[in-house]
Each structure stands twice: as C-alpha cells, then as structure tokens.
Recover the amino acids of this structure.
C-alpha cells in the first residue's frame, strides 16, 4: 500500500515536472521569437521621437531681448534657453563625475577643450565638484541676422557648489556671478563658444509688500497683534497622508475645521506630499483643492502652517532646481493668502542627516528658504525639526523655530530652556507632540486613553503657565497608516494609529478636554 | 589723593581699552594676509597668489571660481609664505576669478582678481557671415560678425578696433568697427547688380580669410511670350514652342536660372492646359503637343506670385477634309481611312478616331482607337451587339461623319 502510494507520488512528480519543463521551454522559445520579431522601430532611424525629461529647471528670467541684430522669436529664444541650461547641466555632471560625456553637444570645438583640460586636471588631483545653478537672469545682447550666433549676458547666476578632494568635502558655498556668453548654432545645437565670468552688477532684494505676518519682539504677529499658535496637526479622518487625493471632500474638512475652531484652537498644520503634488510640475487639480482648504481656513478664521516636501528625500544637488520649481508653483500661487501663517519647508529633515548627509540637507534647506522667501515674501518660514536639539540648526534662517517633542514630559521644560538659549531669540513653536493611547500586545497593554488625557493635561498646564505656542498630534485616530509614514513594523504602526483626540468611532477621547488651554 | 586715584583709574581704563583694541586689530581669522597686490593679470602669464601666515602649521586650500567652473589649489610653502600657483588651464582664460581661502571648511579670506586678454599675443580672427545669399536691391543684407581673440582663445576687450573690408565689382571699401560684448558686426548691404561681395576683416594687423555673399537677382517683372511651330495644322503630332522674352528683375538683372515659368492655355472649349519650363539665361522655353482638332488657344505665362506675361492667341487648322468609312463582314468590321493629312500624306500613327454607336438614337457606346498607317479598324462582335440595327457617328481630327442605320439581322 505504502509502496503504491510512493510510486504514484513519483509518477505525479515526474509528470508535473515534465509538463513544467515543457511550459518553460515553450515560454523560452516564444520569448526568443518575440524578441527576434520585434526589430528596431523604423521611426527610430530618424531620431524623430522626443525623449524629453525635465532634469534641470533653475529660475530663468530674461531681462531684455532688445538687441541691435535680429528680433528673436519665442521659439528661437526657447531653444537658446533650453540648450544654454543644458550646457550648465552637462557641465555640472561632467565636473561631478570627471567624465566629459555630452560636453561635445553643448560646447564648440574650441570651448570644450578648456573643460576637457579642467577635467583632466581634476581627475589627476582627485577633485570633484557638485554644483547647480539656481537662478539665471539672462539678457540678449545680440542675435545675428542669420540666426546662428547669439551673445547673452547672464546675471545673478546663483550657484551652489560642493567641492571635494579625495572624496572629502573641502568647501561648499552659494555665490552669485555673472557671465558673458557667445553661443553658436551648430548641427541644431546652440553651443557655447565663449564664456567669461564678469562682474555681477544687479542686486535684487525681495520686498515685503505688506506686513500681515511678521515676527517682532520675539513674537509671531498677525496683523500687528501678537499671535500665540494653539493648533493641531490635521489630516481628515479617512484620508491620513492623502488629504488631496481622490477621496478629497471639502464638506468633511469644513466640519472638522468647525470642530477645531470650537475646541478653541486657532491654527492647523497640513502636509503636501512632493510626488503627490506633481514634483517639478505642480498639478493644478491639487492646487485647486489646496485653495479650497485654505479659503475655508480663512473663512473659519484658522491660520495654516503648510508643510511642503513631505516624503521627499533626494536632496541631490543636481535635482535641486526641480524642487525649486515645485515650491515656486505652490508658494507663488498662494503668496498673498491670508490663511497661510507659515511655510514649513520640510517635516523632520534632521532624520535624513544620516542617509543624505547633514551638509547637503542643510544646504538644501537654506536655499529652499531663500527661494520661498522670494516667491512669498509676506509669509513666514519655518522648519519642522524632530527634536529641540535639532531645532538649534538654522535658527538664523527661519522666522520662527519649530520643534517636535515625543520624549518624556518631565524633560520638556529643561529641553525647552536649552533651546531658548540657542534660538537667536526667535519665537518657538512646539509643532508636534502627543501620546498614543494604543494599548495592545505590542506595548504590553501599557497605554491607555487615561494616560493620554493625563499627558495632555500636564502639557497644557505647562503651556498655559508660559503662554507657549503648540500644535498637537493629532485630531483623529486613524485606521490605516501608510508604510511610508511609520514603516511596516506593527508596534510602530499600531502606535501611530492612536494619537488622536477623537477615536475611530468619532467619539471624543478623555484627552479631548485638554486639547487647548 | 582723589586726583591720583582718578589718574590711576584712567590709566587702568586706557590699558583695558587698549588691550581690547589689540584684540580687534588682530582677530583670529586675520592671521593670514594676502601679499600679492596685483588685481589684474594677463592671460597666459604665470599667476601666483602669495599669503603670509603667522602660523607655520596652517595649510589652507584656495578655492577658485572661474569662467568655466570651480577648482581647488593646494599651497606650496616657501620662506614662511604660502604660494598658490594658478594652473595654466585657468590662468590662460580671461574673466573674473573669485577665490576663497579655506581651512577645515572655514573661510579665512575671500577676494577676486581678473585675468585680462593677452594683447601682446597674436590675434586670431573668427568671423561669421550670413545669410550667404541675398537679393539684389537695397532691402536685403548679410551680416558679418567678427570675434577677435587672443592666442588663448579669449575674446579681446571692449572697443577693440578692427577693419571690415568689402569688395564689390571695382569698389573696395574699408570700415572701422569696434567690439562690443566680444563681437563687432557690420551689415553688408546688397547692391542693384547681381554678383558676389567678398568680405574680410582685420584686427591688429592680422587678416582673416575671405567670405562671400552672393547677390541673387531680385523678383522678376512682367515679360512677353511668343511661339514658334513647324506648321499650323492640328495634327496632334507636332510641338509648338512657347518662348518667353529674357526675364529680368526691376534692376535689369537676368533672373536666376531655373526660375519656373508656368504657361496656362485656355482652349476654345474653356478647358485649361498647362505646361511649364524653367529659365536658362532668363529665357524659358516650354513645349506643347499640337491639338488633334482645329481650335484656338489663349496662352498666358506666370512666374507664380511675381510676374505675368501678355496674352497670346494661337489658331490651329484642320489637317483633313474628309475620310472614308467602310463596312465589311456583315457590317461587323468598320474600317476608317485612309486618313490623309494636308499633303495627302498618311497621317502619322496615333491620331485618335472615335466611333459612337447608336441604337434607336441612344448612344450605346463610344469606342476610341488610334490610327496605324493611316487606318483605324473597329470590330463589333456578335456577342455584344445583338440588336438588329445600329447607327454610327465617326469623329477624327475634328471632322465628324454620321452613318445611317445599318442592318445586323441574320
């Protein structure tokens, strides 16, 4: 009996493996045939397909097109601008990798020699340069009658660079220069023939047109009156970390705003995800939804701190300009919106220090603050640091210092005192704090809603004593947490679900009593 | 006593202040001083920045931002001084060089110097002329752009003088131009007579090669047409030549060879025929086959959008006056001919003859054949033409003939 069963099993295995082998053989043979049949697409012969991806988008503003030669058409100007920016991009890559790939396309025979020599020298001395330009203000000085030669003066070229020797960062800096450039049209490419660094003459400062929001005497002021932020980090109950997605419902948000207002809070903090909002080309649909939210906040008399670049983590120098365009499109759309108290550049950027390098992250933040100040001079700017220690970074660059606090409540006042002495007298905002009421297997049933209520009670008492600005985390408990927020680990994920003042059944938790002071 | 204590206090105060002022005069960062005073260097020359340093141990690096990028230079120590030699790669290119002296990521000193073009060296001239073909007259022009450089390929400074030489027929002119934004430019105006203009430029006694721009004739003006033909018979065989007068532009230049002239022929029946030819030495000769029936043609030529000719009327006479039609094989074979032309000669092969077939006064079919050796034969097969009677009309070279009812009954 046993023997017969064994034999049948062997037979089965043999049969199945035979069939399996045949399937594999057939699959293999057909994919080889399919590969051989799909020859090169004939249209590729002419290189007519357009492979265009935005890789380098510094701010370009043509200040003048008046020139004694020929009047330039938009199309030609675009083509000059495009090729000129690519020349910078290709050159930046070449100096970063010390590989002259692509230089031939954007520099003429005589000009490229100089770059080749520089690369040779850098290679020998193990020097690499990572650089990006952030701003260009070109002026067309001359465009020849036959449309094959152009001279431009490019002013206010803001350039950030990191210089390495033997793979060690030697120096990083942002400087402003001007260049005079002769370009020739060769083989359909505008190529650089001469490039000479000249004196930069124009200096431009952004001007505040109104002082609706400002920081004065160590206080945030709204319309000239001191404003103490009593706020909350806000996501709608059913769409955490996806506020502007398919399920966007302004009615739900309206009810929530009313709820927040009735709880004696005066501000909220919301998040815009970098990719969700369309990276370098902000999606107008999302901007429209954001506008609805902001208009509603203005109507409800809530101030909003808008956190940009959520889930962004690249920071690489050559991609900076793409993030600048992202910020420009969002920020300049709402540059005069009275609901926006501040732009929070990024949530907890200090957590990227280890992976991306503190130097790079900080440089990106500084540059981004400059950019945002340019686009919205009337709004305040802050950075949502993950701890009071991290918040000591860049205190001179932000309008007010934001920090998060998830440590033991007993250390809070001491940590705050330390931060105060290192904050260049800027207003401090506790931008995130809270306690999860999660009680379950992952924390040995140690949490409870009572604990949470006590925590908030204590915190509010401290805030009240010194009239501190706070924004708690968060309004609702969530049923789903995306992996990108708290990772896959269940003890983290479950904890993250129960930070709210209101539970998933829409009932106020005990902590709701202590949502404000 | 009081006075002396005041004096002591005063002295003490001065001492303290002077101690602080010493601090201020020599803050820590200024331990390194730039000794090189030159602010402008000439391209291609040896460039060295010399710093003197109090601290012997310091080993700062010099960061350069030049026209084409950034680089780092290490120092060389000599007699307690720090020497930074700018590599020739950078010292030969003009422009402002911003330098920063850094040590451990901290800026010690920051300044800039300028490298100016090397005027002692041999000048190179690069010049561009375009467009290379222009129209005669006084509207069009070519533009010459000159970029003089030094031997290191650096554009020469603002307001460098250069000469633009221009030759046209017997005239040679020289214009002085000055560079602005690295370039000097001059418009080379067209002339009324077509031909070549040679252009060259010179700067600092260095001459460029010559460039040519071609003045092409301007737009054609109205012209006349005539014709020639071997005879005036409508034989459908000979060619009539349509010839333009020499076509010129408003300045008397013969238009460029290859200018297309289109002849539009309106026939007596108001149909339009076209033929075209391109000019050689201003004359276009088009050909068209004679019609095969007597008619009158009205011809006008155009250079599309630019010029037109006079109207020309040509008449064609009939070649034949009559022909025979012979029915045979029970009337099923119809032979037409001989077709004789104006000298009784057999008409050349290919003349079209049409046979219209009627039955009870309705056209059933029109057959068409071309002549061979003066004859055309039509065949009416029994299978297709089953009626008892048919009548016919024969057309050839503009003459038509009716043939009364023929009987096909068996």
């Amino acid at each position: 009996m046993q023997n017969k069963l064994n034999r049948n099993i062997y037979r089965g295995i043999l049969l199945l493996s035979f069939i399996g082998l045949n399937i594999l053989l057939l699959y293999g043979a057909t994919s080889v045939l399919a590969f051989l049949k799909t020859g090169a697409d004939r249209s590729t012969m002419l290189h007519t397909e357009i492979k265009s991806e935005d890789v380098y988008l510094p701010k370009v503003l043509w200040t003048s097109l008046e020139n004694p030669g020929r009047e330039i058409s938009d199309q030609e100007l675009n083509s000059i601008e495009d090729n000129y920016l690519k020349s910078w991009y290709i050159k930046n890559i070449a100096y970063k990798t010390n590989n002259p790939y692509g230089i031939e396309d954007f520099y003429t025979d005589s000009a490229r020699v100089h770059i080749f020599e520089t690369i040779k020298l850098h290679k020998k001395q193990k020097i690499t340069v990572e650089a990006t330009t952030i701003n260009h203000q070109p002026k067309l000085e001359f465009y020849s009658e036959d449309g094959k030669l152009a001279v431009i003066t490019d002013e206010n070229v803001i350039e950030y660079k990191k210089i390495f020797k033997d793979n060690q960062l030697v120096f990083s800096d942002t400087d402003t220069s001007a260049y005079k450039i002769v370009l020739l049209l060769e083989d359909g490419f505008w190529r650089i023939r001469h490039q000479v660094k000249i004196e930069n003459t124009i200096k431009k400062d952004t001007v505040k047109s109104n002082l609706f929001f400002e920081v004065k005497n160590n206080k945030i002021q709204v319309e000239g009156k001191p404003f103490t932020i009593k706020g909350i980090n806000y996501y709608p109950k059913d769409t955490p970390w996806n506020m502007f997605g398919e399920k966007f419902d302004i009615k739900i948000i309206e009810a929530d705003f009313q709820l927040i207002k009735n709880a004696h809070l005066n501000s909220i903090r919301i998040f815009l995800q970098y990719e969700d909002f369309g990276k370098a080309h902000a999606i107008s649909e999302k901007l429209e939804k954001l506008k609805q939210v902001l208009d509603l906040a203005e109507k409800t008399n809530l101030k909003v701190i808008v956190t940009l670049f959520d889930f962004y983590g690249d920071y690489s120098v050559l991609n900076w300009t793409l993030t600048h365009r992202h910020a420009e499109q969002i920020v300049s759309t709402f540059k005069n919106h009275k609901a926006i108290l501040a732009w929070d550049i990024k949530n907890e950027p200090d957590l990227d220090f280890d992976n991306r390098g503190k130097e790079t992250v900080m440089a990106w933040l500084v540059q981004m603050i400059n950019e945002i100040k340019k686009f919205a001079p009337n709004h305040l700017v802050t950075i949502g640091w993950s701890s009071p220690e991290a918040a000591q970074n860049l205190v001179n660059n932000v309008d007010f210092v934001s920090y998060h606090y998830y440590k033991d409540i007993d250390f809070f006042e001491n940590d705050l005192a330390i931060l105060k002495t290192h904050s260049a007298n800027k207003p401090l905002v506790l931008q995130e704090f809270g306690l999860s009421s999660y009680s379950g297997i992952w924390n040995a049933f140690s949490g409870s809603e009572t604990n949470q209520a006590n925590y908030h009670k204590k915190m509010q008492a401290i805030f009240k004593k010194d009239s501190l600005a706070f924004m708690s985390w968060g309004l609702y408990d969530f049923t789903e947490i995306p992996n990108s927020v708290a990772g896959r680990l269940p003890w983290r994920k479950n904890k993250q679900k129960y930070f709210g003042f209101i539970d998933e059944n829409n009932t106020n938790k005990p902590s709701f009593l202590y949502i404000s002071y | 006593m009081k006075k002396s204590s005041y004096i002591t206090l005063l002295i003490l105060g001065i001492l303290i202040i002077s101690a602080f002022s010493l601090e201020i005069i020599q803050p820590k960062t200024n331990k390194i001083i730039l000794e090189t005073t030159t602010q402008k260097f000439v391209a291609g020359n040896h460039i060295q920045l010399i710093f003197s340093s109090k601290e012997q141990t310091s080993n700062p690096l010099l960061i350069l931002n030049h026209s084409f990028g950034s680089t780092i230079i290490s120092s060389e120590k000599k007699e307690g001084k720090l020497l930074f030699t700018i590599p020739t790669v950078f010292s030969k290119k003009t422009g402002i060089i911003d330098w920063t002296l850094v040590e451990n990521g901290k800026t010690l000193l920051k300044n800039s110097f300028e490298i100016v073009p090397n005027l002692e060296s041999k000048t190179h001239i690069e010049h561009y002329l375009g467009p290379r073909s222009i129209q005669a007259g006084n509207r069009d022009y070519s533009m010459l752009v000159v970029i003089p450089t030094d031997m290191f390929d650096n554009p020469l400074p603002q307001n460098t003088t250069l000469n633009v030489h221009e030759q046209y027929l017997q005239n040679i002119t020289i214009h002085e131009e000055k560079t602005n934004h690295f370039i000097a430019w001059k418009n080379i105006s067209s002339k009324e007579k077509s031909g070549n203009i040679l252009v060259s430029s010179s700067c600092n006694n260095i001459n460029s090669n010559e460039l040519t721009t071609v003045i092409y004739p301007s737009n054609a003006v109205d012209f006349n047409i005539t014709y020639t033909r071997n005879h005036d018979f409508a034989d459908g065989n000979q060619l009539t030549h349509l010839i333009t007068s020499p076509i010129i532009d408003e300045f008397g230049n013969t238009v460029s060879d290859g200018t297309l002239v289109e002849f539009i022929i309106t026939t007596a029946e108001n149909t339009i025929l076209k033929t075209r030819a391109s000019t050689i030495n201003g004359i276009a000769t088009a050909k068209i086959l004679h019609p095969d029936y007597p008619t009158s043609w009205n011809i006008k030529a155009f250079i599309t959008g630019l010029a037109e000719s006079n109207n020309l009327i040509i008449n064609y006479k009939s070649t034949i006056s009559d022909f025979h039609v012979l029915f045979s094989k029970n009337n099923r074979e119809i032979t037409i001919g001989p077709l004789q032309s104006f000298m009784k000669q057999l008409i050349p092969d290919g003349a079209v003859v049409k046979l219209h077939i009627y039955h009870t006064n309705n056209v059933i079919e029109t057959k068409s054949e071309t002549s061979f050796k003066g004859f055309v034969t039509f065949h009416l097969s029994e299978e297709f033409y089953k009626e008892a009677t048919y009548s016919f009309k024969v057309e050839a070279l503009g003459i038509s003939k009716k043939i009364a009812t023929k009987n096909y009954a068996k």
Notes: Confidence is low (pLDDT under 50) at residues 19-29 of chain B. The two ends of chain B are 172 Å apart (CA to CA). Chain B touches chain A at residues 61, 63, 65-72, 87, 89-90, 93-98, 100, 102, 105, 128, 130-132, 141-143, 145, 147, 149, 153-155, 181-183, 185, 187 (CB under 8 Å).
